[in-house]
Please model this.
Amino acid sequence: MQVPGDGMKHTHGSTRYFLAGAVSSLALAGVLVLSWVGLRASAQEPPASATSAESGSLLEGFRHVEVASVSDAAEQILGRKIYMSHRMQSIFPAKFAGFAVTVLLKKDEGNKDTNALAGMMAAIDGGAKDSVYVMTVEDGADIAGMGGLMGTTMYSRGYVGAVVDGGVRDIAQLRRIGFPVYALGPVPSTSVGHYKFAGANIPMLCDGVQVQPGDIVAADADGVVVVPRAKAEEILALAQQMDFKEHSMYPIIEKFHSLQEAVRRFGRI
Model:
């Protein structure tokens, strides 16, 4: 015989067990969801340190390979030239490689706008370590696109160099701090009042070569190349092979006094 109230106790007990089970199930589901989200995020977004390490290793590779080999490798892989013309000259012997920060200036003769070049200054101040400042000054062979103030700022921020399709000034200061600049030549003029800022970190042409923000810009005594970031690893690997072959050929040439013998052995010319 059931005692009055026993059914109610049983019902309350069942309810407690049900609620406890439900809470446990929800907690387990939450843990599984969070674990899945965490794994998914890890797969899609590699740690910043790993990405930074990979980028640093890539730049080190380009800093130890000859620009001529990079140019040859890119022509084989891309089927087009990536080098700037003989007009692009360094203000002192230099070798560097870094990621492109692009800036474009367009003619605006006689402008009185005090903020006409504000975007250019903001782009410089926004550049990270290992950047290369790449500037195009429209019809700017006789206009200094950059000088000592800009170069000193870049140097203090860890830029590795600058490439200017235009002129450069304040050479003494740039040499004093050891900041390498490739440009069309020295000129004492200013862009203030003659040019306006037309964009930063945009795709553009610099001395006839396409440059995308983040591309690798490498330079040495042979000139300047712009390596598309998406093909950088492939181009570097081939350039390193070419470098190894060429450097191995020098002692063969010296020993046998024959270019043909070296080419026969290494297939590089």
